[in-house]
Amino acid sequence: MAWPTSSAERAYLPPERTTLADLRSRPVTELPGVGPRIEAALGDLGVASLAEMVSYYPSRHEDLSNVKKISELRVGEKATVVARAVSTRPVGRPVRGRSPGFSVQLYDGTGYLPATVWGRNWLLKGLLPDTRVVVSGEVQRRYGIQLVAKSIEVIEEDLDGDTGPHAGRFVPVYPVNKGIQARRMRTLIHRALDAAGRILDPLPAEVLVRHNLPNLHDAIHEVHFPTDRAWLASAMRRLIFHELFLIQTGLAARKVRLEATQVGAVHTGDGSLLNPFVKELPFGLTAAQERVIGEVLTDMRSEKPMRRLLQGDVGSGKTVVAVAALLTAVESGGQGAIMAPTEVLAEQHYLSVSNALAHLPVNVTLLTGSQSTPERRAALGAIESGEAHIVVGTHALIQKGVEFDDLSVVVVDEQHRFGVGQRTLFKEKGRTHPDTLIMTATPIPRTLSLTLYGDLEVSIIDELPPGRKPVETRLVSLAERHDAYDEVRRELDAGRQAYVICPLVEESEALEDVRAAEELHEELEAEIFPDRRVGLLHGRMKATEKRAVMAAFRAGEIEVLVATVVVEVGVDVPNASAIVIEGSERFGLSQLHQLRGRVLRGHHPPKCFLLADPKTEDAEQRLEALTKYQDGFKLSEVDLAIRGEGTLFGSRQSGMPDLKVAKLLRDMDVLVEARREAFALVADDPTLKRPDHRPLRREVKDLLGADVDWLFRE
User: Fold this and answer.
1) Of 151, 206, 336, 622, which one is least surrounded by beta carbons within 10 A?
2) 606 - beta bridge partners?
């Protein structure tokens, strides 16, 4: 589909003077009609500048292009009428709380026609006799001919009869609040586009030509006030491409800059530790594990610091890959570290790594914030002297006072729980910049990984060890709750163990979560399993108490463990074959999948019971998806489709914006194109110093924030 003129002509427009960056410094109060009240209403919508105003895109468009005279209307057709209100009267009665409607008699010089409006009685005060209105709807024969209105708006008197942005075209519909009506928003955006002037396009003209995209100025205007459907579709594709291109340019610049300025350790391990470790494993490596270990070791042999994301579903064997990297560092004379988000997970890693390496001359040391002063002093001394070959800990690892002898590789587990600033602090701990392997058991759709972690190399373990049994997952209503616990009892009678996860109250209400866990523990201990040993684990317990509870559960001394989501990741008790998740509708889909993974480790058929009383369609979809799918990557796509992108970035990538127009699952093809173009451009001009790239550099810096200034220093 060609734009109104050729793409080449549109790409090579005369130089424009206004950029979106310029418009960010111009407040909306410049616009006529924006006083304190409207300014506050716009502020509630996140609109404070002209840039935000022209980038406040419609949620949909209504086709009001079929404007007809009343005398031309036919029953059954949808049309728009511009006429004058003659009179109004109420119609109908309130039904189930719904407001009654009203009828407005219309006259346009060719005839009279009543228009019925349902549920919007607040419009009546503006429909005075002789008021000019635009009404859109369907012509129906019901008690005579009438127009059943889908929309009705009062329009200002215009000497030339023009309806402006409000009718006779595809009319934009914007998300608004009670402080500003749709028509006012439409008028203000129309004025903002006029006030903005011609908007400079920061994307290179050759990119636009290659992808047959309109320039930014035309695309913005077309999306707000479309000429026709085809041009609207092309304009939307341009804005999606634009948004993704800017993000990918920032990621590409970050990747190139880090590779150019950071020097890493060249690991030359000889396999003297890695080979015996692999040989002693009680299982053979999967092909996926072998492939990923090869990718990691190739990175570690380079002088460029490794920056790799390792994805793998629950139980896929990521820890083996991590240990392979750590042992290679030790073989090469360096130290390795694993940073986990919780003490429970850190201690789990410490125990599993220590046990796996017990036959090797490797010293594994634990460092957490709750250690006693003598324990901490001993750990710090071993770390600084190099006696500690592998250090496992929480964020305590990056605190001041922790000095490594030669830290050369870092494994960050469950990266999404750390801010990017916390992870990068490891650069101060080694003689060179440490290699970094980021692990996550929360699968990320490819579209998200290219956006959230687009500056990292990605490895995926896409197969599970042989013999791994799927979890039988059942949705259980509250009325069937005791039936679920009867099944758990049968597992206990067979000598196995179970988890019971207490429901979330509110994430910020830690004390409420504790209270819920304690109450559930009391109920199970007194009423449901009075003859069984029931334990309790939650995040507010002292570290020594948590260690004691987990040790007792691993040893089989506790048969049923009541816990909060502190056991979401990392807790490994192979004898646990059943998990009950109370109030499961309150959990996110990825969190439910992680919790279910706690019973994947053993040799017995695992069972998961989702006790739920879902009140929303989203909650029902999440729970049904969990019963239907075992694959975490599939679930992550379902989750993204249910939730939408939302606030994707936050601290996962410093300064990353939310997406306004792009939808990652829908726009994968555009993302791939934008990424390819952005990385090629940055490879050719890493700091975007060329004169024709400077507008792009400014736009990327404005979009991603001051934190990216260092990327473009020449």
Assistant:
1) 206
2) none
Give tens-digit pLDDT for 648-659.
Answer: 443 334 445 567
Q: Evaluate whether residue 193 is within a structural domain.
A: yes
Residue 649: inside a domain: no
d(CA 674, CA 248): 7
Chain-centroid distance of CA 142 in Å reads 49
pLDDT, residue 477, reads 92
Of 152-156, 226-230, 581-585, 706-710, the range with the highest mean pLDDT is: 581-585
Give the C-alpha separation, 26 to 40, whole Å: 16
What is the pTM for the complete model shown? Answer: 0.69
Taking CA atoms, 565 is separated from 188, 307, 447, in Å, by: 48, 29, 27
Q: If we measure between CA atoms, which residue out of 45, 125, 19 comes closest to residue 696?
A: 19
Structure tokens at 305: 């610091």
Are 264 and 434 in contact by the 8 Å Cβ rule? The answer is yes
Whether 160 and 180 map to the same domain: the answer is: no
Q: Is 561:488 a contact under the CB 8 Å cutoff?
A: no
Q: How far apart are CA 627 and CA 616, in angstroms?
A: 17
Of the candidate ranges 210-224, 486-500, 691-705, the one whose mean pLDDT is the lowest = 691-705
CATH number, domain at 307?
A: 3.40.50.300
Token pair 């491409």 is found at: 241
Separation of alpha carbons 242 and 236, rounded Å:
10
Please give the Cα distance from 612 to 55 (Å, whole number).
41
Task: Name the average pLDDT for the chain.
Answer: 83
- Number of structural domains, the chain? 5
Alpha-helix runs per DSSP H in 555-601? 589-596
511 phi/psi in degrees, rounded to 5: -65, -35
CB of 24 within 8 A of CB of 49? yes
Domain membership of residue 58 (yes or no) is: yes
For residues 284 and 429, state if they share a domain: yes
Q: Crossing angle for the helix pair 318-331 and 287-300, nearest 10 degrees?
A: 30
The per-residue pLDDT for range 283-330, each reduced to its tens digit, is 889 999 999 999 999 999 998 889 898 988 877 888 999 999 999 999
Which residues in 283-360 belong to E strands, given as ranges? 307-312, 335-339
Q: Which residue has the higher pLDDT, 440 or 471?
A: 471
Better-predicted residue by pLDDT, 557 or 126: 557
Q: Which domain holds residue 687?
A: 201-261+669-714
Most confident of 5-19, 121-135, 281-295, 417-431: 281-295
pLDDT per position as a tens digit, 516-531: 788 899 999 999 999 9
Report which of 355, 246, 367, 294 is spatially closest to residue 703, judged by C-alpha positions. 246
> Residue 510: CA atoms inside 13 Å, Cβ hemisphere, count?
5
